[in-house]
Specification:
GO terms for molecular function: DNA binding; DNA-binding transcription factor activity. InterPro entries: ArgP (IPR017685), LTTR (IPR050176), LysR_HTH_N (IPR000847), LysR_subst-bd (IPR005119), WH-like_DNA-bd_sf (IPR036388), WH_DNA-bd_sf (IPR036390). It holds the Pfam family LysR_substrate. Belongs to the LysR transcriptional regulatory family. Among the domains are: about 90 residues, Winged helix-like DNA-binding domain superfamily/Winged helix DNA-binding domain (Arc Repressor Mutant, subunit A); about 100 residues, 3-Layer(aba) Sandwich (D-Maltodextrin-Binding Protein, domain 2), CATH 3.40.190.10. It contains twelve helices and eleven strands. The N and C termini lie far apart (about 50 Å). It is of the alpha/beta class. It is about 45% helix and about 20% strand. The mean pLDDT is about 90. The strands form three sheets. Strands 3, 4, 5, 6, 9, 10 and 11 form a seven-stranded mixed sheet that branches. Strands 1-2 form a two-stranded antiparallel sheet. Strands 7-8 form a two-stranded parallel ribbon. Helix 5 links the parallel strand 3 and strand 4.
Length: about 290
């Protein structure tokens, strides 16, 4: 296939910006030129690469070409910087789980050398690898140790979670201890329907399936606030809960905890910008995680 750089840039811009008009604005060309370049790219590839929806979406074949387009764009930025040419900062899309984003990841990104603009995709750590596979992100913090094809992986450490509650809630629902009966009736807070952490703890505490009343709060800060306000108990990371006195948050199950291992996965690219961010993530994780 004869894939032209301007065509690959048009594809990347269209998926990133969501429309041909927005892609044209970012590339400083006309929407018609964007359409023509993508049509020429599809002709060269011999297949449809984009679904003309709002926002536009890459087809399965388009995802493979999109990964190539984004890799070339990152390498082009790195090369321009090495040659001393003025260039826009590299755009680094990264997938991060909500609790890491709320606690230790932003300081890590702030400590990274200048020269990159971050596009953070919030996703559960069990599902961030999907964004790596489809080319949406170049790197991800994930709970998956097995490397995605075309990626390398590094263990960062583990986030420790404990079942916590507001003191009055704990006295009301767990006055006789963290029994299976108490867990079956006490309201629980979950991040969303992909959040399995609370149910993992419940499975450890009872041989029978438990289905207590559930609140869904899809925000790390909101999840913490819901537990602190007594809506229910929830698994909170030590990095969050240790900042509050026992008058506001208490463990409801003794020393029980769950450690969630975290890994950094990134594309196998010799990119100074991506390597610098990876080094900063690893250094901050070594200080923050178990």
């Amino acid at each position: 296939m004869d894939l032209q750089l301007d065509q690959l840039r048009a594809l990347n811009a269209a998926v990133t910006e969501g429309t041909f008009d927005a892609a044209a604005k970012s590339l400083r060309i006309t929407p018609s030129a964007v359409s023509q370049r993508i049509k020429a790219l599809e002709d060269a590839a011999g297949r449809v690469l984009l679904q003309r929806t709002k926002p536009v979406r890459a087809t399965e074949s388009g995802l493979a070409v999109l990964r190539l387009a984004r890799q070339i764009e990152l390498l082009a930025v790195d090369t321009a910087r090495e040659l001393g040419e003025a260039h826009r900062p590299a755009r680094l899309p990264i997938a991060v789980n909500a609790d890491s984003l709320e606690t230790w990841v932003l300081p890590a990104l702030a400590a990274a050398p200048a020269g990159a603009c971050f596009e953070i995709h919030r996703e559960d750590e069990e599902h961030t690898t999907r964004l790596l596979r489809d080319g949406t992100v170049m790197a991800a913090i994930t709970a998956t140790a097995a490397p995605v094809q075309g990626c390398k992986v590094e263990r960062l450490g583990a986030m420790r979670y404990r079942p916590m509650a507001e003191p009055r809630f704990a006295r009301t629902w767990f006055g006789d201890g963290a029994t299976a009966k108490a867990y079956a009736t006490a309201p629980v807070v979950l991040f969303d329907r992909k959040d399995d952490l609370q149910d993992r703890h419940l499975r450890r505490r009872s041989r029978q399936p438990l289905d207590p009343p559930r609140h869904y709060v899809p925000s790390s800060a909101g999840f913490l606030a819901a537990v602190r306000l007594g809506l229910g108990w929830g698994m909170l990371p030590d990095l969050q809960s240790r900042n509050f006195p026992t008058t506001e948050l208490v463990p409801i199950d003794g020393a029980a905890f769950i450690d969630v291992p975290l890994y950094w996965q990134q594309w196998r690219l010799d990119s100074p910008a991506l390597s610098a961010v990876a080094a900063s993530i690893a250094a901050t994780a070594a200080e923050s995680l178990r």
